[in-house]
Design brief:
The protein is α+β, with helices and mostly antiparallel strands. The protein has one domain (2-60). 46% of the residues lie in helices and 21% in strands. It is built from two helices and two strands; from the N terminus they run αββα. The chain is flat and about 35 Å long.
Length: 61
């Protein structure tokens, strides 16, 4: 479990670091998601999807 939390913290830190240096978002809506398996600790992510459900499904693959 500690490994999963450590990976999640590392991923969150990377996302926050990237967002601080990015320009303001355009008016278009784009969705992304981050998924973490509690049983295996595997990570998944997605970005640039039209809606939340599509982004979540892609992150879980």
């Amino acid at each position: 479990m500690k490994v999963v939390v450590a990976r999640a913290a590392l991923l969150l830190g990377a996302v926050l670091t990237m967002s601080l240096g990015s320009p303001p978002a355009s008016a278009q809506d784009h969705c992304g998601a981050i998924a973490i398996s509690q049983s295996t600790g595997r990570l998944g992510w997605s970005y640039d999807f039209a809606n939340r459900q599509e982004a979540e499904n892609a992150a879980k693959r």
